[in-house]
Design goal:
With 116 residues, the chain is an alpha+beta fold. It has a single domain, classed as Alpha-Beta Plaits. The chain is built from four helices and four strands. It has a four-stranded antiparallel sheet with strand order 2-3-1-4. Helix 1 runs antiparallel to helix 3.
Amino acid sequence: MIFLVESVDVRPDDVDAYVRGFETHYLPGALDRGMELVGCWHTPTQIGEDVTVMVIFRLPGWAEWEQIRNAAVADPGVAAWVSVRRELMVRGSRKFYEPAALTTVAPPLLAPPGPS
């Protein structure tokens, strides 16, 4: 199991548009391709700095990620999302994480996904 963590900075006034664009254009196809949304959070908009939006997906493994990524190429929602994202994003990063031996996350998060 691996986790995909995307952190994107946007201007405070763009947070809602960014999250709405993600939910409209990217998320439906991501779920259909086998990605499991763990959560979406953002830093406060009222503190006078860019806002970081963090999205975390759980994936079964690297082989599945390759299939998911290859399938995304044909998804028109991904192209629409890239356009929206580029317009709103100040900067961002995408990293993959694997659970460490010391992980203390609640078991449901680390349990293999159930049948769909």
